[in-house]
Amino acid sequence: SDGSIRLHQMTSEYPLLQWNGSTKGQPIIALQWALTRPAVFFVLDASSNIYIWDLLENDLLPVAKQTIPSEKVVTMTLLGEPEKANGLLGIVLAKESGQIDIQYVKKKWAIP
């Protein structure tokens, strides 16, 4: 609820890494690991901002931020084919009106 993200290992109750205020205090609505690239995850906050984290590039801050200005995004999920090396990765956004929007991710964050 405060924008903090914690990375846990299954064998420990304590986080390996923790990022406080990663969304400048906005509650996190959804967080998902990339299906095609294990070190990348995506975060959606309550202000319809999507943050892309690539832990191999920067483990302190997100590597990109995209605001969806037109309408409030209520949830997101990812689509892709992890068994294929084509690097196709998409973000499915569900908006408050019920509209669904699909955006494709740059190859540098999608290729295995």
Short description:
It comes from Emberiza fucata. With 112 residues, this protein is mainly β.
Sequence stretches where pLDDT stays below 50 over 5 or more residues: none
* SSE series: EEEEEEEEE
The number of E-state strands comes to: 9
Q: Quick one: overall form?
A: globular
Give the topology, please.
Layout: E1 5-8, E2 15-19, E3 28-33, E4 40-45, E5 49-54, E6 64-67, E7 73-80, E8 89-95, E9 100-104
Antiparallel strand pairs: 1-2, 3-4, 4-5, 5-6, 7-8, 8-9
GO molecular function: dynein heavy chain binding; dynein light chain binding
InterPro entries: DYNC2I1 (IPR042505), WD40_repeat_dom_sf (IPR036322)
Protein name: WDR60 protein
What does this structure look like?
The protein is mostly beta strands. The protein has one domain. It is 0% helix and 46% strand. It has no helices and 9 strands. The chain has strands at 5-8, 15-19, 28-33, 40-45, 49-54, 64-67, 73-80, 89-95, 100-104. A 4-stranded antiparallel sheet has the order 3-4-5-6, with no helix packed on it. Strands 7-8-9 form a 3-stranded antiparallel sheet, with no helix packed on it. Strands 1-2 form a two-stranded antiparallel sheet. The N and C termini lie far apart (31 Å). The model has no long low-confidence stretch (mean pLDDT 90).
